[in-house]
Please model this.
Amino acid sequence: METPTHVALLRGINVGGRNPVDMGALVECFHAAGYGEARTHLQSGNVLFTTKRSADTKLEADLERALQQRFGFAIPTLVRSRDEFAATIAAAPDDHGSDQLRSEVFFVKAPLTVDAVLDQMPELRAGVDSIAPGPGAIYFSRVKALAGKTRITRLMAMPVFQQMTVRSWRTATRLRELLDEARDER
Model:
């Protein structure tokens, strides 16, 4: 039986010189914790790896413990299986990622829910910002030509934002491709 591929989305590393994490050391940490075929994408904390375990809060907690021990600071971690990640990408609005928009995916860490985030969502700017709920994520876009007028920074300043991690649409779709390639290689 093949071992499923997952992606770990680490929050807040290598951002503005804070919480520096070497990608080689990150891969070593995953291997030392017993996860297979670990590899990173970009410098912002995207780790593809294999495990027979389910992508759940216990797996996330185990990874967070291993990361804390290795790097000496807390690194909030969200894990999605290949199928869960693919479902999130597939559910995006049709125009998400279009040339006229700057689009991102805000991944929500359990036990926080998408509905709970939407209930707290500050007022965004009409004609500039748009949001849509998805499985375990919120799709956010702003019109490129008006990006300086976005109000999404209001959400980013709220405590609830600490339980989310953001990936650009380009990075999110590339991660899906890498997950698919890993599955197809087996």
Remarks:
- The CA atoms of residues 97 and 170 lie 8 Å apart.
- The chain has six helices and eight strands.
- The longest helix spans residues 169-184.
